[in-house]
Write a structure and sequence with these properties.
heteropentamer; A mainly alpha (638); B mainly alpha (170); C mainly alpha (105); D mainly alpha (475); E mainly alpha (493); B: 170 residues; mainly alpha; globular; E: 493 residues; two-stranded antiparallel sheet; 2 strands; 73% helix
């Protein structure tokens, strides 16, 4: 085995960049700051590619496939005899894949941001946050144990919070960042409890021990049974809750649309390509435990993923904010990935879903980042997010137009673009597992194509709007990343994923099942056609459709009132019916009791003052009575 | 027999005049009743053969204190003035408390069997009393006798301090 | 005389006198009569001492001398008390105990 | 009697002599020069104080009527120290025009009461005990009525003398019953024969009521506040510190020796009385605005704590009571000293007048605060140790709940002590009392009190000495 | 050796603030040196339970000693105190009203705290406890704000009532410390070797635990805390929440549980319920508060509840977590109060609704506030995370289901914490500027920077590299836990 200790540098470089920019950035020229951030990431990216290359080329062992390697580990905190929190670097197929994804997208976003954020007073701050995020995310994927993952999980959450709230003077941004943080934090609680339970049942945090099919975690089958499922299953479900929070699965998705308040590069990096797939990565990371230890939990994953994907797709069809459409699209796509994991089994053919999921993760990162960056370029040009405020931009922004179109076609699953392959695998996996889920995904594929092209036409076709100034193409520093990503979107599908990233490390023979592929392509095309008909030029059809499906439309447009439900729960229930009463209770009952004791004492003090009447004879009376009473009590009663 | 008659006479006088002392509405009369009580007590002492004590009782108490009291009564109130009486509530409460105390105490005392010291009953004469008074052995009372002089001195000075008029103040 | 009369008679008399004195102390409004009540109390105690001495422990004169001392103390006490009462009379123009309640609570 | 016997009785004899000397000097002094008495007396008393410390073993005189031992001498010395501080603190007041002619009387009366207390502490029989008690009380009544022109003073005098007469009547009745049932007035004899019969118990209760009056335990305390308020401030501090201390000393001696056979019963009584005293004292103290009255009630509450030590019923209890009284003397005299200094100079006695005192008279305020903290039992000042040992001795007797109640009461007491602290330090006042400089004697008196408050706690030696002495007595 | 330092500092009379700054600087250095020496001793293989012991007999008849010494736990606490006091002195640099008295009181308070942590004798411990409490009254009463007299009085009285309970407990322990040989002792180490009769433990444990618990803001005896904190001046709030409340946790652990393990095991469930209520309840209460200090006070209730909660879990990991949590919360909350003080000094309001967008005008304070907030809600990289995770994992290792369930309840507080922290940060620092007067505000002065940075450094140092601290504490915890686990545990359910 080769020495991979240097991989430690991949997360650490961004960290130092973060410290440098965070502490000294305000003294630098913006461009320097951007350059430092970008070059830091650039080095990381190069190291990642080198690692990936080395790993996939040289670490393959015939018969057992790719092994996982602990490149580095140090004890961070010693908890009990068995449990220690270690920090380290774990190299295995999925982490290497994630390294590549993250560094690539992150690098592109960095480059892009130099142009996008130009002139912003918090330029250095933005780059330091970006670096912090990259550090956290890389630390997350390289985690050797679940607790390290949790640590970086939290850090990812906070950098997301910082980036969403980047425009901190904008109340909506502040609210959105808060919402994102709290919702994911809530999910993290599930994650934490899951970790607690898992560590209690298995006595370890370490991934290698946990995922070892012969290891204690899986072998034990989870110990005691609680409400029909083993404790292991429960802990895995709770861990999945954490993943669902980050990955915006229903019903914890509500933060994602709001998170679009952040700068668009951030949306591209965090809320499309990397952080939101952390949940997928988490489940993938623990996949052997899920698959072998507690299949029940895996079913939950599948259904949550499936439901989220169609739920988000429906909503996406009705939104008008381009970033929100993309956000729901992201949610939908991640639903795909989750579902894919959920329907997968461990090893061999069964493990198709696992492979497909990671594959889709990879391709999705490319095209969704591309979409966001493209959207960013558009927004940069027209200064609005609303699709109604755009139109006819194809002639002003040719590069953006082309790359955006590529991305749309990719996401619609049209061969030979990359998503066709990954999506196809997912559908196959679903088909072999559960027909209903397959049906859902099938419909979602159509819906995806539909709403993406609705978006595409809305932006680039149709009438010109009255722009404040003529939109112009973005600078090269922004368009080059678009092109790089477009390249990735087109060709990533040809990567031999089935040989590299599989559930058990062994290569997997895949073949395109045309019986599934063709209908899926067809429904994608159908979606595109419908969208073309409805939106290519302005017609009355959309309104009519909306009128026909009035209620559905309204519900979907309002995101099925999920926000309202949450508001109700937080504002009404927690704030009004829990916190305020508790605060009232505290002030009035508990504190009142304490003050009451003092009050009673005071009152008694006043009440008995008559004893001290100033009258000598009364004193004598009390004296005598006291004596008599003492005599009575102690001589006669005792 | 005579003894018994004397005892009951004195006893009755003591109780009756005590009662009168504390109930009489005229202050001066109360003082006189007190005098009777004290004299009767002296009578009891005589009967118990403690002549010296009886004499002291008569001179100091009856002769000294009561005169002092009568003096001060004359100084502070008119002879005919009727003393204000305590309100009924106060009287009743006091009577209840005092009555309960008396009953309890009497019950306790009467239930107790006092054991006399065995031995003879030496008859002390005035010389013995005098000797005891200046003896500093056990059962000698030289020390209290001396200390009481300090007390009397202090009381005298105290009385003077309290009662003397201030020259400076108008 | 002690042959014919039980000790308890003396004790009854003295106890009665004692409590009568207390009653007087508690109910007489005039400060001087209160003082007189105190004398009653002391006197009753004296009777106790004397009777105990005579009846039970005639070998020593402890009760006897106790009485003697109490008498002297009573005299001193009365002297000071009367001086103060006169002072009160000067200040309050009254010797009614009810009026002497300037300080309270 | 020989010289040694005189030495044995030196506390009493010296004082008597002192009183006579003062009297004689006074008679030979012209009116204008009366104030010369003050330094002379102070000097003589200081000599007396020093002589008191000559070590001396145990001895018994007058056939057991008078006895002494190192512990008793210690007690007397403690009282001497207290009186010395009081004398220092009263100099300013005595020099006032209105008291010019009564200076020597003040000293004589004070000394006679101290003689009485010394005899009371040293008494070996009830006769001397009673005599000492009366000697300690009657002149104080005269002192309480010392200030003529104030009706309050006269009222204090009459309240004190009449109620003390009543209480000594009851006490005497108890003693007579003790005599009747045991045949002796000597402590040593009584100790051997005293039994737990109803009459003897009743006698004890009567006796105890009388004693409770002296140390002002609830419900026998009602005179305290009025007398304290009415009497001249220095007499009040004398009453609250010296009288109470002496009575506490003798009470604990009597409890531990004469009535030891009643321990099982009297502990219940003490329990009840202690709880009542602490609680009622505190409840009353809370509302007081007059500083003297305030301290009166606080000293009532303090008396309740003393009972805790008696309840302990062992060497520790005895030691802690004596130690507590010692500490209490210093703390209370610190507080009274400040009140006295202020009251003498400005005539202000209300708590409201203390608002903002710290701005003008920081040293007085600090001393006051220390004293109050000491009274409240706050470390690191001595009161903490005093209270702690009291609580410890009660706990050693197993009275955990009582300790709890007591400490809660200490907390309540802290409340009102803090009210004063608050007045001095926190409350804003447009017109605080003007700055003034006390004279040398007052400052010396305050300083001694302050030093005592500060060092008695840390200086464990004091406690150890008392403890070893108590140990000798208790065995 | 530390008392010398502590007492030396009380004589600052002139140039009070400079003197106290220097004094506290020295103290901080001494604390650091102490930690260093301690670790050196340990690595040199010294395995005695207590190091640097110093022992003189004080009251021989009662066997009261003046006994000092440190183990890993107290060393850690002293380090905490050193930092907080140091920061506190700088935070109150601009004290104008009676500065001399202020610093003297502050230092007396610090002396009490130091003394408490190094005491090995229950008597001295109790003494220092009270020494630490009383200056609070003066400090709040004189230099406080708002209903300061009321708050000061309430705080003092409640804490004193706590000490009433405590005293009963301590005396009880003392009198049963050696029932056979009649050689009573207050020494913690000696008492830990004997077993107090179980009946007595049952009686005394609640006294002792609640006694300390009041100081540790145990529900429902916590109400002194919000009022007290709200009224106290900055440095006092810092010291109070940062250090003084830790006395409760430390005492509960060192005295109540260590000396009475059987009763602790028996009664833990009651207090576990109470503490977990504290944790959740404090957090919920904090959500709706509008005054910055109240928010922080309730957050302290929540966090300190967690300390007691972990202590009661009585296994090594949880207790370790408890101690780290004490340190961590001490630092964080001190930082918070320092910041609140500084913000209040500028805006003259503590009502969050009246502020907004302050990040723009006072970026330094804003950033530090965000850091403090993030630390408080348990973000990795800061000490809070280490502490909370150690506690939760430790607690969850308990074999008893009840303990594990209640751990989950307590753990849920981390979400609520996030809610109120973000709420404050959002309203206070972010968003548009509410009041144009705020535009003229100036950012932190140098002394304010010293104060805050020293705290931030400590927080991040622990958060980044907790292992040495944890090991240091673990070493000293081991014998204690051994004693606890030697007790026959009877499960409740």
């Amino acid at each position: 085995m080769a020495d991979y200790t240097y991989t430690l540098l991949i997360p650490l470089i961004p960290f130092f960049v973060f410290l440098l920019l965070g502490l000294q950035g305000h003294k630098m020229k913006p461009f320097i700051a951007g350059l430092i951030g970008t070059s830091g990431l650039g080095i990381g990216a190069i190291l990642s590619y080198a690692t990936a290359f080395r790993y996939f080329v040289s670490e393959h062992v015939a018969g057992t496939g790719y092994t996982s390697i602990k490149a580095f580990e140090v004890t961070w905190l010693h908890l009990t005899d068995k449990l220690t929190i270690n920090l380290g670097v774990l190299i295995d197929p999925i982490s290497v894949m994630m390294l590549v994804v993250i560094t690539t997208v992150s690098l592109m976003v960095h480059i892009y941001s130099i142009g996008y954020m130009k002139g912003d007073p918090g330029f250095y701050r933005f780059f330091s946050f970006l670096s912090l995020f990259s550090f956290s995310m890389l630390g997350l994927v390289l985690a050797t144990n679940i607790f390290q993952m949790y640590i970086f999980w939290e850090l990812v959450g906070v950098s997301s919070f910082l980036l969403i709230g980047y425009y901190y003077e904008k109340p909506s941004a502040v609210a959105a960042s808060k919402k994102a943080f709290i919702v994911t934090r809530f999910a993290d609680l599930g994650f934490l409890i899951g970790i607690l339970m898992l560590s209690f049942t298995t006595g370890t945090f370490d991934f290698q021990t946990l995922t070892n099919p012969a290891g204690p975690a899986i072998a034990s089958k989870g110990g005691a049974v609680f409400m029909g499922m083993s404790l292991l299953a429960w802990s895995l479900i709770l861990i999945f809750v954490g993943g669902a929070g980050k990955s915006a699965m229903f019903p914890l998705h509500i933060w994602l649309p709001d998170a679009m308040e952040g700068p668009t590069p951030v949306s591209a990096l965090i809320h499309a390509a990397t952080m939101v797939v952390a949940g997928v990565y988490l489940v993938a990371r623990l996949f052997p435990v899920y698959a072998l230890g507690a299949p029940d939990a895996l079913h939950v994953v599948a259904w949550v993923g499936g439901f989220s994907s169609i739920f988000a797709a429906v909503i996406a069809c009705t939104q008008t904010d381009i970033k929100r459409i993309l956000a729901f699209s992201t949610m939908s796509q991640i639903g795909y990935m989750m579902l894919s994991l959920g329907v997968s089994g461990f090893g061999g053919e069964e493990g198709l879903g696992f492979m497909a999921s990671n594959f889709h993760l990879f391709t999705h990162a490319m095209f969704k980042a591309l979409l966001f960056l493209g959207a960013g370029a558009v927004i940069h040009a027209v200064h609005t997010n609303e699709i109604t405020g755009m139109g006819g931009l194809r002639k002003y922004m040719p590069f953006t137009h082309i790359t955006f179109l590529i991305a749309c076609i990719t996401i619609a699953g049209i061969p030979p673009f990359s998503a066709f392959f990954s999506k196809d695998e997912i559908l196959v996996a679903a088909f072999h597992s559960n027909k209903l889920l397959f049906a859902i995904e099938f419909i979602v594929a159509g819906l995806t194509a539909f709403y993406m092209f609705r978006l595409y036409y809305g932006i680039f076709w149709g009438k010109d709007r009255h722009y404040h100034h003529t939109p112009h193409e973005a600078p090269y520093v922004m368009t080059v990343p678009l092109m790089v990503l477009a390249f990735g979107s087109i060709f990533a599908g040809f990567l031999p994923f089935h040989n590299l990233v599989t559930s058990d490390g062994l290569p997997l023979e895949t073949h395109t099942e045309w019986m599934i592929a063709i209908p899926s392509v067809l429904i994608g095309l159908l979606g595109i056609i419908i969208a073309t008909v409805m939106y290519k030029s302005e017609t009355a059809i959309p309104d009519k459709v909306a009128g026909t499906l009035k209620h559905l439309y309204k519900w979907a447009h309002r995101k099925f009132y999920m926000d309202e439900v949450y508001l109700f729960v937080t504002r009404k229930i927690i704030y009004r019916y829990i916190s305020e009463p508790i605060a009232w209770f505290d002030r009035h009952i508990i504190d009142g009791t304490m003050n009451g004791i003092a009050g009673v004492t005071q009152y008694t003090s006043v009440a008995i003052k008559e004893f001290q009447s100033g009258k000598l004879q009364q004193y004598g009376y009390v004296f005598i009575s006291g004596t008599v009473i003492l005599v009575l009590i102690f001589v006669y009663l005792f | 027999m005579l003894n018994q008659v004397m005892f009951f006479l004195f006893g009755a006088m003591i109780v009756i005049f005590s009662l009168l002392t504390v109930t009489s509405r005229k202050v001066l009369r109360a003082a006189v009743y007190l005098l009777f009580v004290l004299i009767s007590t002296a009578g009891l002492y005589f009967a118990l053969n403690y002549n010296f004590l009886a004499a002291v009782q008569l001179t100091v108490y009856a002769g000294g204190i009561v005169v002092l009291i009568i003096f001060s009564i004359l100084l502070t109130s008119h002879v005919s003035e009727k003393a204000a009486m305590a309100p009924v509530k106060q009287s009743v409460l006091s009577a209840l408390s005092v009555g309960a105390g008396a009953i309890l105490t009497l019950m306790t005392i009467l239930r107790f069997t006092f054991v006399p010291n065995p031995g003879t009953d030496p008859q002390y004469n005035i010389t013995d009393v005098g000797n005891a008074l200046i003896s500093y052995k056990r059962d000698g009372y030289a020390l209290p006798f001396e200390v009481i002089s300090v007390l009397l001195l202090a009381a005298m000075i105290g009385a003077i301090v309290v009662a003397k008029k201030e020259r400076i103040k108008k | 005389m002690i042959q014919n009369i039980p000790l308890s008679y003396y004790l009854v008399i003295s106890t009665l006198m004692f409590f009568i004195g207390i009653y007087g102390f508690l109910t007489r409004r005039n400060l001087i009569t209160m003082l007189m009540s105190v004398e009653l109390i002391l006197n009753s105690v004296n009777i106790n001492f004397v009777a105990f001495n005579r009846y039970l422990y005639p070998q020593q004169l402890q009760g006897h001398f106790f009485t003697l001392i109490v008498v002297a103390v009573a005299a001193a006490e009365s002297a000071v008390a009367i001086a103060i009462i006169i002072n009160i009379y000067r200040n309050f123009k009254s010797v009614d105990v009810e009026n002497v309640d300037e300080m309270k609570y | 009697m020989n010289f040694n016997d005189f030495l044995t009785m030196r506390h009493e004899l010296m004082l008597t002599l002192l009183a006579l000397v003062v009297l004689i000097i006074d008679l030979n002094l012209h009116n204008r020069h009366k104030h010369y008495i003050i330094p002379i007396t102070l000097g003589l008393f200081f000599v007396n104080l020093l002589v008191g410390f000559i070590p001396e073993g145990s001895n018994t005189l007058f056939g057991g009527m008078y006895r002494t031992n190192p512990l008793l001498i210690m007690m007397k010395n403690i009282l001497n120290i207290g009186v010395f501080i009081i004398l220092l603190q009263s100099v300013t007041w005595l020099k006032k025009e209105e008291n010019r002619e009564k200076i020597s009387e003040y000293f004589i009366l004070l000394f006679s009461t101290l003689i009485g207390m010394n005899f009371m502490i040293s008494s070996g029989d009830f006769l001397m005990f009673y005599l000492g008690l009366e000697l300690a009380t009657i002149p104080v009544a005269a002192l309480a009525a010392y200030t003529h022109h104030q009706t309050k003073s006269a009222e204090a005098g009459i309240k004190l003398i009449l109620s003390s007469a009543l209480s000594s009547g009851i006490l005497l009745f108890g003693i007579s019953m003790i005599y009747g049932s045991t045949g002796s007035i000597y402590f040593d004899t009584i100790t051997k024969v005293y039994a737990n019969t109803p009459l003897q118990l009743l006698a004890f209760i009567f006796f105890f009521s009388g004693m409770s009056f002296k140390i002002s335990l609830v419900p026998f305390h009602l005179w305290t506040a009025d007398v304290y308020e009415g009497a001249p401030i220095n007499v009040t501090s004398y009453l609250s510190v010296i009288s109470k201390g002496a009575a506490a000393f003798i009470l604990i001696i009597v409890m531990f020796t004469v009535f030891s056979s009643l321990a099982a019963v009297y502990k219940n009584i003490l329990y009840l009385i202690a709880v009542l005293t602490m609680t009622v004292g505190n409840l009353f103290a809370m509302r007081q605005k007059n500083m003297k009255r305030f301290l009166a009630f606080s000293s009532i509450a303090q008396a309740g704590f003393i009972l805790l030590g008696i309840l302990g019923g062992n060497v520790m209890g005895m030691t802690s009571v004596i130690y507590f009284v010692l500490v209490y003397i210093f703390s209370n005299l610190g507080a009274f000293g400040v009140v006295s200094a202020i009251s003498t100079v400005t005539g202000k006695e209300s708590m409201d007048d203390y608002d903002g005192l710290y701005r003008t008279n920081p040293k007085l305020s600090l001393l006051m605060m220390l004293s109050l903290f000491s009274l409240a039992g706050i470390p690191p000042v001595a009161g903490f140790f005093g209270k702690f040992f009291l609580f410890a001795s009660a706990a050693s007797g197993g009275y955990y709940w009582l300790v709890f109640i007591a400490v809660l009461n200490a907390t309540i007491s802290l409340y009102y002590y803090l009210l004063v602290v608050k007045a001095m330090f926190i409350n804003k006042n447009e017109t605080p009392l003007a700055f003034f400089k006390s004279d040398l004697a007052t400052r010396a008196g305050l300083l001694i009190a302050g030093l005592g408050i500060f060092f008695l706690g840390f200086w464990a030696k004091v406690y150890e000495i008392i403890s070893s002495l108590s140990y000798g007595i208790m065995q | 050796m530390l008392t010398v330092g502590a007492i030396m500092l009380t004589k600052d009379l002139k140039q009070a603030r400079l003197a106290s700054a220097i004094g506290m600087g020295i103290q901080l250095i001494m604390a650091a040196v102490l930690i260093y020496l301690y670790l050196a001793e340990r690595s040199a293989g010294n395995t005695a339970a207590m190091l640097f012991t110093y022992d003189v007999v004080w009251f021989p008849t009662l066997n009261i000693h003046y006994s000092l010494g440190v183990d890993g736990i107290s060393v850690a606490m002293i380090g905490l105190t050193g930092v907080v006091v140091f920061a506190g002195v700088f935070a109150s640099w601009q004290m104008e009203y009676l500065p001399r008295e202020f610093f003297i009181s502050l230092i007396i308070l610090a002396t009490g705290v130091y003394g408490f942590f190094i005491s090995l004798d229950l008597f001295t411990m109790f003494l220092f406890y009270e020494v630490a409490v009383i200056p609070m009254y003066i400090l709040i009463g004189i230099w406080g704000s708002g209903p300061k007299e009321y708050s000061a009085m309430k705080l003092t009285l409640m804490l004193m009532a706590g000490s009433a309970l405590l005293l009963v407990g301590l005396l009880g322990i003392y009198f049963f410390s050696n029932p056979d040989t009649n050689h009573l002792t207050f020494s913690i180490m000696e008492i830990s070797k004997v077993n107090i009769p179980i009946g007595m433990q049952r009686f005394l444990f609640p006294f002792t635990f609640i006694g300390f618990g009041i100081l540790g803001a145990l529900f429902p005896f916590h109400t002194w805390s919000p009022d007290g904190h709200a009224s106290a001046p900055t440095a006092v709030s810092m010291l109070h929440a940062g250090v003084l409340m830790k006395l409760g946790g430390y005492g509960a652990f060192r005295v109540a549980i260590f000396l009475m393990p059987e009763a602790a095991h028996e009664q833990a469930w009651i207090f576990l319920i109470l503490t977990s209520i504290s944790v959740v309840y404090g957090a919920f209460s904090a959500i709706v508060q509008t005054d910055l200090k109240y928010i922080n006070a309730y957050s302290s209730v929540s966090h300190c509840g967690l300390v007691l909660f972990a202590v009661l879990m009585m296994n090594q990991t949880a207790m370790n977590g408890a101690i780290i949590q004490m340190i961590s919360h001490g630092l964080m909350t001190a930082l918070f109060f320092a910041l609140i003080g500084m913000i209040y000094g500028r805006t003259h309001t503590r009502i969050i609704g009246e502020m907004g967008g302050l990040m723009k005008v006072i970026p330094f304070l804003g950033v530090v506030y965000v850091i403090a907030g993030l630390a408080s809600l348990g973000l990795p990289g800061f000490s809070g995370f280490v502490a909370e995770m150690t506690i939760f994992i430790g607690s969850y290792q308990h074999t008893d289901v009840f303990h594990r369930v209640i751990t989950i309840v307590a753990a849920s507080s981390i979400v609520i914490t996030a809610v109120y922290i973000l709420r404050v940060v959002g309203i206070l620092l972010l968003g548009p500027i509410k009041d144009h007067h705020f535009l003229e505000l100036t950012d932190a002065k140098w002394y304010e920077r010293i104060s805050t940075i020293s705290l931030v450094l400590a927080i991040t140092a622990i958060g980044m590299a907790p292992l040495w601290l944890s090991n240091m504490i673990n070493f000293s915890l081991a014998p204690i836990v051994e004693r606890l686990s030697s007790i026959q545990i009877t499960s409740l359910f």
